[in-house]
Structure to design on (332 residues):
């Protein structure tokens, strides 16, 4: 999961309970089909196989090991921050499981999917933490203090008991997480880290496809309601890790490095998903549906302007750093 937050407006989680109930019922065969498809193409993997255990040393504490020092880490500062934010976001999985269960229910295929998704997501936090501890990649005490602070607050979706908004949201979120993990691995300058995060990113992509296909089916059943949900989610999008202590500073550093920024969010997450759903080409929408699509189009146009403005400012920033002889860490 990622270190990015877009402009956040008050969430709008309005929906017709009758539509909600009907979709949960009518989409269950789709959920069952998509779960079978997912299980047929996913490959089981084992977190311990991606961790260089032989590099590990006992830490200071009851076992009288060596205290962590900054020089122990082979990771750049931005790679450390990105890994920490990604890991802490993964750590809140119990809250995500609760929220998704409340919105979708545990009956039948829905419950089977939720439990499978949770089990697969749990691997991500396991492998990230084991890698960071074995390689002494980050300060273990600071990491644990941050985990306690973040999980003590938990996560609550702005779309309470709302399956349609929730599925639309996690479609974008899973794809965004995939890109953040992939680019964090690239900038780590560590082949082991990159291999590990590529494996995690593959899971996130498969999860995105599951949710994307559900919305694809729902849009044929209730196009106006789905377009409303999509517009609400895109306009109010915020990743679940935005409450992590120090998120703002770290996310700016991550955006400057090109790991995840507004342009990536627009061009590699939002636009491809909208094209897959055919949102801008839908016909037969009501006046309310057209108004929601217009709202979405206006937001995308403004986001493109904002993204281009940020990229221009980023180039100026790096030009100044280069002129001062400072080291630059960024993806090309």
């Amino acid at each position: 999961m990622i270190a990015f937050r877009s402009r956040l407006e008050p969430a709008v989680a309005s929906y017709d309970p009758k539509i909600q109930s009907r979709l949960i019922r009518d989409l269950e065969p789709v959920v069952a089909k998509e779960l079978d498809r997912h299980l047929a193409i996913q490959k089981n993997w084992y977190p311990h196989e991606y961790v260089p255990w032989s590099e590990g040393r006992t830490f200071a504490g009851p076992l009288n090991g060596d205290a962590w020092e900054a020089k122990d880490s082979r990771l750049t500062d931005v790679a450390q921050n990105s890994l920490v934010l990604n890991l802490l976001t993964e750590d809140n999985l119990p809250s995500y499981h609760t929220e998704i269960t409340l919105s979708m229910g545990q009956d039948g295929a829905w419950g089977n999917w939720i439990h499978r998704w949770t089990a697969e997501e749990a691997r991500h936090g396991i492998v990230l933490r084991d890698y960071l501890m074995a390689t002494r990649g980050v300060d273990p005490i600071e990491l644990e203090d941050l985990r306690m602070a973040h999980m003590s607050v938990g996560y609550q979706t702005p779309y309470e008991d709302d399956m349609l908004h929730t599925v639309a949201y996690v479609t974008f979120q899973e794809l965004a997480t995939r890109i953040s993990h992939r680019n964090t691995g690239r900038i780590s300058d560590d082949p082991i880290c990159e291999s590990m995060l590529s494996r995690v990113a593959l899971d996130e992509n498969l999860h995105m496809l599951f949710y994307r296909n559900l919305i694809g089916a729902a849009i044929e059943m209730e196009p106006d309601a789905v377009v409303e949900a999509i517009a609400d989610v895109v306009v109010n999008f915020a990743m679940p890790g935005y409450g992590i202590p120090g998120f703002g500073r770290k996310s700016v550093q991550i955006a400057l490095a090109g790991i995840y920024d507004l342009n990536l969010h627009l061009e590699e997450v939002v636009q491809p998903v909208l094209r897959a759903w055919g949102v801008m080409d839908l016909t037969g929408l009501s006046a309310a549906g057209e108004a929601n699509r217009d709202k979405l189009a206006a937001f995308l146009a403004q986001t493109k302007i904002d993204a281009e403005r940020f990229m221009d400012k980023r180039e100026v920033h790096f030009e100044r750093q280069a002129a001062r002889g400072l080291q630059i860490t960024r993806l090309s």
About this structure: The domain at 17-54+68-323 is CATH 1.10.620.20 (Ribonucleotide Reductase, subunit A).
